[in-house]
């Protein structure tokens, strides 16, 4: 009994002392400052160690973060961007009076400046405009055209629009734009209105499109010729051996690479299909159907109500080099045909390898026209 009573008394006394201890002993007046500082630092190091452990635990951020950003909290990541021009001063939220919904790019040389001037005037302030300069002449445009000071200029000598597109038009960089126009410089636009064109594309549900071409000014493919009294067409009659069922390029699901227009979703696919080293884009037009949902011939079409003229100015050909007795333009043309064959081979081989990995027979779906 004495032992039990002593134990109970000791426990009770210990609890009372413990409750009173902070007030009786731990005060700034009764402990050395160095000891208090050591206690505080121990808490800081403990918190830092816990944070470090959390940061280095890949299970925290990986499910939502892009690859390589595992050490960042998800709320700070800006994975997409735009080409909006911003001020160097003021409140960032007040930079833009209007956010353009569409993007148009032209690959240009100074000799075609008057043609480009006419084109630019067809696009409203709903468009961000980018000029890719292949001849390095940029300041001259500012001297001649007032609008030039409000567009984006990118200058790299002797490159094509697909080289520029692969390097400057990543889908995450232009994610704010509903439609992307990637056009050549030799286009007549007297009968074209950009806003009306977008309205037609939306109305007919086109993911990839182009304006109709004046049939009197020279065309390459039957399907791209403008038709009378219709807004849009998606199929045509070519040579019988070219067309299949369901219809495919060049009889349907086809636009040329001179003046294509892509939806945001379609461009995300097309950008990845563009090859880094194949710069002319030949063969790409036959493969674009891969970047829309089937049936592709319903999502790709020609807008007849807004049409253009292809002027066939071989200005980029003059940027080539005379070699082996061939003129600059002949060398460029040979490279175009070479790239077409290379692109066709790459896509077909990639498809075969994929189906082989699945241990199934490849579909008969040739990428390009033979």
UniProtKB/TrEMBL annotation:
Top-level taxon: Eukaryota
PANTHER family referenced in this protein's UniProt entry, alphabetically: OS06G0731900 PROTEIN, TRANSMEMBRANE PROTEIN-RELATED
Protein name: Storage protein
Protein species of origin: Eruca vesicaria subsp. sativa
Lineage: Eukaryota, Viridiplantae, Streptophyta, Embryophyta, Tracheophyta
């Amino acid at each position: 009994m004495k032992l039990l009573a002593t134990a109970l008394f000791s426990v009770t006394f210990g609890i009372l002392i413990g409750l009173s201890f902070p007030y009786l002993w731990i005060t700034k007046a009764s402990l050395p400052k160095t000891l208090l500082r050591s206690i505080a630092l121990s808490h800081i190091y403990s918190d830092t160690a816990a944070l470090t452990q959390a940061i280095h635990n890949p299970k925290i951020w990986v499910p939502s973060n892009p690859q390589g950003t595992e050490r960042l909290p998800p709320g700070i990541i800006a994975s997409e961007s735009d080409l909006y021009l911003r001020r160097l001063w003021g409140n960032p939220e007040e930079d833009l009076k209007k956010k353009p919904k569409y993007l148009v790019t032209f690959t240009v040389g100074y000799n075609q400046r008057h043609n480009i001037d006419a084109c630019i005037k067809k696009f409203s302030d709903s468009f961000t405009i980018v000029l890719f300069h292949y001849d390095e002449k940029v300041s001259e445009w500012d001297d001649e055209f007032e609008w030039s000071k409000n567009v984006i200029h990118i200058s790299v000598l002797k490159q094509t629009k697909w080289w520029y597109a692969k390097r400057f038009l990543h889908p995450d960089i232009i994610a704010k734009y509903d439609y992307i126009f990637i056009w050549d410089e030799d286009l007549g636009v007297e009968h074209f209105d950009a806003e009306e064109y977008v309205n037609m594309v939306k109305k007919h549900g086109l993911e990839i499109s182009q304006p109709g071409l004046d049939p009197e000014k020279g065309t390459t493919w039957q399907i791209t010729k403008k038709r009378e009294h219709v807004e849009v067409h998606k199929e045509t009659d070519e040579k019988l051996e070219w067309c299949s069922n369901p219809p495919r390029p060049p009889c349907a699901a086809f636009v040329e690479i001179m003046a294509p227009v892509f939806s945001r979703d379609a461009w995300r696919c097309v950008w990845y299909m563009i090859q880094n080293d194949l710069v002319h884009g030949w063969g790409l037009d036959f493969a674009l159907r891969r970047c829309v949902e089937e049936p592709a011939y319903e999502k790709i079409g020609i807008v007849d109500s807004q049409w253009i003229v292809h002027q066939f100015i071989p200005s980029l050909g003059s940027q080539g080099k005379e070699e082996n007795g061939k003129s600059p333009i002949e060398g460029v043309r040979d490279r175009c045909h070479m790239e077409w064959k290379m692109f066709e081979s790459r896509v077909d081989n990639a498809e075969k390898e994929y189906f082989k990995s699945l241990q199934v027979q490849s579909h008969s779906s040739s990428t390009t026209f033979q």
